[in-house]
Amino acid sequence: MAAVESLPPGTPSAMRNAFGTVLSALILVLIGVLAFSIRLFSVIKYESVIHEFDPYFNYRVTQFLSKNGIYEFWNWFDDRTWYPLGRVIGGTVYPGLTLTAGTIWWVLNSINIPLSVETVCVFTAPVFSAFASWATYLLTKEVKGSGAGLAAAALLAMVPSYISRSVAGSYDNEAVAIFALIFTFYLYIKTLNTGSLFYATLNAIAYFYMVCSWGGYTFIINLIPMHVLLCIVTGRYSPRLYIAYAPLVVLGTLLAALVPVVGFNAVLTSEHFASFLVFIIIHVVALVYYIKGILTPKMFKVAVTLVVSIGLVVCLIVVAVLVALVASSPTGGWSGRSLSLLDPTYASKYIPIIASVSEHQPPTWPSYFMDINVLAFLVPAGIIACFSPLSDASSFVVLYIVMSVYFSGVMVRLMLVLAPAACIMSGIALSQAFDVFTGSIKYQLSSKSKDNAEDNTSTKNAPKDDASSGKTDKGEEVSKERSSKKGKKKEREPAEKLSVKSKIVKKKALVLPLEASIVALLLLIMLGAFYVIHCVWAAAEAYSAPSIVLTSQSHDGLHVFDDFRESYAWLSHNTDVDDKVASWWDYGYQTTAMANRTVIVDNNTWNNTHIATVGTAMSSPEKAAWEIFNSLDVKYVLVVFGGVIGYPSDDINKFLWMVRIGGGEFPHIKEADYLRDGQYRIDSEATPTMLNCLMYKLCYYRFVETDGKGYDRVRRTEIGKKYFKLTHFEEVFTSHHWMVRIYKLKPQKNRIRGRVKKLKQKTSSGVSSKSVKKNPWM
Amino acid sequence: MMNLSRSVALISLFLLPLLSFSFSVDNPTDRRVLVLLDDLSLKSSHSIFFSTLKSRGFDLDFKLADDSKLALQRYGQYLYDGLIVFAPSTERFGGSLDSKSIADFVDSGRDLILSADTSASDLIRGIALECGVDFDEDSSAMVIDHSSFSVSDGDHTLIAADDLVKSDAILGKTKIEAPVLFRGVAHSLNPTNNLVLKVLSASPSAYSANPSSKLSSPPQLTGSAISLVSVMQARNNARVVISGSLQLFSDRLFRSGVQKAGSPNKYEKSGNEQFATELSKWVFHERGHLKAGSLVHHRVGETDEPAIYRIKDDLEFSVEILEWSGKSWEPYVADDVQVQFYMMSPYVLKTLSTDKKGMFHTSFKVPDVYGVFQFKVEYGKLGYTTLSLSKQIPVRPYRHNEYERFIPTAYPYYGACFTTMAGFFVFSFVYLYHK
């Protein structure tokens, strides 16, 4: 009571603060629940399975980790992929996701919650998207206060772009990496705002986690230096900036080099050069500021001219050396994926294997609307809000959104990096708009009541006004608070009072008419409602398909296509453990994880030549393909064919990429041979090379028996060559809907026949022309 | 008889995994051979050849080629282990037999002696064709040689051939001195076919034509491209002998003396008997049949086979190879067996040394390349069965703690690190407390 009495004006505001904190904590918990539960549609609609391709590899690695421990995982040499080269898994994989899920599994098991590894893997992504929305709250709170933070967190919890990568079962690096990305940014801003070395260290550790998780860490290590440079250029250099940046570079680089897959790349590749350059610059700037502090202005001027002239020379030399070093490496020290970011046409020109992945293509305009929806309209408003006033933190998020918009325009996949930025911006915009609208409504209402109660004393009016504006400006209030959070209460009270007073003055300029505010508020709420509806639809319908099980809704009910699992099960039950299965690389991870068979190439596309070999085999005629496959000890060839049920992403549609990739290494495969007048077709107009290549034959073998005409429902045409026999391959399995077809390589003939030509003359037309060709394998 | 054959079938069933074909190791004497004749008089005219086979323990079952009860298998089981077709003029076999079933018989790992003759039927040519042998398409043609004929012969169609393949495995260790007498049809082989082999070739002056008519156009088959007797060893090691002359096996030519035209040497007895006997030994796997035990490998100083090697490991490799002598498995002695350590191409190729007791071994260092390797023994010596063994073994890189802990050349860097650390400590101390 004494305390309350001693601080009479602070009591209601302290109560309000406490209430606000509890409320925002509650809201955050609900946002977490929302983020988690909106991603469960896939489990409810389908089942608790791992999705797509890469997650199967991650799942297999996690199984290995949980069975054999971390050292075995680190040193794991996998002899079941990339046969016969093998793959050093421990040194080529970003271990963050696996270690995270492995740890969760281990902790749960050690407290006697016996969940299977698969369950943990399935639910890792939803759990981490809850974490990501909390991290968004923290980051936005640092920028524009907790109101904006809550709005941004709520938006992020259900942004479709992020949902597409983090539904239950989508066990991929991005699932944890987005959390790590946002959290690293949060800690950077936190350090920038506080200047605390403690947060700087935490920041380096968060960066380390990000490096462990995803190759997208290069985005951080380029974005933060750019922001530092921006601050320096705009004259915002401060010791806080130095503390936020220098430890991050030193500790972060050291830690990053500990991750086996990064290793010396952390200091050798061009992706990291920007950070070192800025590291040097910030030291020079710090030195300049220090010298400026101890010298008189006149002396300083002399020193500047002296240093600048010498410094320029030194700089030129250093730059020349650097350029020479970088230019001496063929790609300029950049990795292919990074180069295709800087020059969007690079991949399609030089690296078909990167261009062949659909998620590396540039996005279309509808995909922006699909993935971030109304946020696209709110982002500009958020940017404007960030400029009033511009702080270190808000300039960072502005830079973040600008960069991520560019990158998302280059690659569909990087839409994922854009999504948090868009959420933060929209959160800021929404919260600012709400501030303005509710504030003016309150002001208008209170001024009306003031008019009505004109006879009341002015002393009563004052606190009322005070209170109302204090409530509405909670967001801004908190943002002011954070700078002095650690300060003592006594210091805060007068400052708060002062700010409130000054805001009343400011508020009056921003006051809008009552009706306009109400309408605008309603419109904003409608916009939000539209966003929520779209997100729930996207989560439920668009992004929840596991792609390993397909469904289709037709007039006679729901059809389930479980062909993939059917055929992987066939492989694991009917083939020998050491048999090698060749397929296009898309299905490599699934084959090793689900069928436990050795594959030639898989989704980790580290060896272009090996993939090109398989591409060449698929684009060669049967005999040449048999020779290639036999030299790789392949026993079975698996193709995915959608012509019967109309599944568009099958091997025939991917086939041109096989030709391109194969032709890139083996020039006798020419893309033009497979195209008729530049058109890719499989009907009777198709080129003979196309009709005789292995992929065509394996896909369409006996296809005409399905409907009598050979009508391909994906290409919407009748196929060109309907009746043919296979000489070097035999069909051993075709799944229920013909989606997966498995062929076995025939063994070499036991005998080699003599020349048939002579006999043919005698037996007249008895022998067909096919057996005339001299073929040692016949 | 039934009982016997059942027990044979049982035994061979047990041995099947060991030898994956019908050649029964324990009971070579019980091997049943079907002899198809187009005329039962051949039984007496070729009695020496048949009796040598019988004396070696073969159970010969003579049947006429058009016997309507002919069958090679019953209830999916083959009734015979070998087949001799001395029926050059048969146009159609009786029973269920045709050229495809004979090809299947060979593909099941069983052996065949096929003899054509002048005016051989399409059926016989078809069987030969299945085995990669092309008989001269002119059915009236014979091999004619005006320089290396037998002097006893008038129209130069009885060839005294002495161009034999140089292989102890096929023709035995004792050299066949006397020329082999041959009268019959020529055949040729596809040079790209590495499964067939000329055992008896014609001399460069031979050609294939009809001796009774005048030669109007140049003969198609000439010189040493003509093969008189060929053998084929299929990929499953089934063996086939194809002869262009049925008379080669006859008692008359076995007995007759020979003098090659233009040669002073006159032999009392032709080489036919020795040639036919040795060839029948080869074709029925009494010689040149190898078997290998499993490939054994382990690190130097260990005895157990590891699941994975590390790069630069030293390893020892051995394999046991035995040869069938006709009675028992004897150690195979050779100095040309090689092992490959193979991953898309051989990284190590080593000749194995033998201890003369059938064990071949070597030791080498695993190359500095990781991946899934194979130990491969590909042994295809002329006349011997092909050995093709492979065993997969992965090779991993160093573990994280198997590298050198301290590299001598890096000591300056270690020094720099520690002096910097010490210097920083001293500096902080001085900076903080020096006033």
UniProtKB/TrEMBL annotation, chain A:
Compartments reported by the entry: Endoplasmic reticulum membrane
Keywords: Endoplasmic reticulum, Glycoprotein, Glycosyltransferase, Magnesium, Manganese, Membrane, Metal-binding, Transferase, Transmembrane, Transmembrane helix
Lipid bilayer topology: Multi-pass membrane protein
Positions of the Oligosaccharyl transferase STT3 N-terminal domain: 22-425
Enzyme Commission numbers on file: 2.4.99.18
Major localization class: endoplasmic reticulum
Transmembrane feature ranges: 18-38, 88-108, 120-139, 145-163, 175-200, 206-230, 242-267, 273-291, 303-327, 368-387, 394-412, 509-533
InterPro entries given in the database record: Oligo_trans_STT3, STT3-PglB_core, STT3_N
MF annotations from Gene Ontology: dolichyl-diphosphooligosaccharide-protein glycotransferase activity; metal ion binding
Biased composition (Basic and acidic residues): 462-494
Co-factor requirement: Mn(2+); Mg(2+)
Gene Ontology CC: endoplasmic reticulum membrane
Keyword Flavoprotein: no
Subunit structure: Component of the oligosaccharyltransferase (OST) complex.
Name of the protein this chain belongs to: dolichyl-diphosphooligosaccharide--protein glycotransferase
From TrEMBL, chain B:
Pathway: Protein modification; protein glycosylation
TM regions (residue ranges): 411-433
GO aspect biological process, one term: protein N-linked glycosylation via asparagine
Pfam families the record matches: OST48_MD, OST48_N
InterPro entries: DDOST_48_kDa_subunit, OST48_MD, OST48_N
UniProt keywords, alphabetically: Endoplasmic reticulum, Membrane, Signal, Transmembrane, Transmembrane helix
Primary residence: endoplasmic reticulum
Record-annotated OST48 middle domain positions: 297-435
Functional note: Subunit of the oligosaccharyl transferase (OST) complex that catalyzes the initial transfer of a defined glycan (Glc(3)Man(9)GlcNAc(2) in eukaryotes) from the lipid carrier dolichol-pyrophosphate to an asparagine residue within an Asn-X-Ser/Thr consensus motif in nascent polypeptide chains, the first step in protein N-glycosylation. N-glycosylation occurs cotranslationally and the complex associates with the Sec61 complex at the channel-forming translocon complex that mediates protein translocation across the endoplasmic reticulum (ER).
The protein, known as: Dolichyl-diphosphooligosaccharide--protein glycosyltransferase 48 kDa subunit
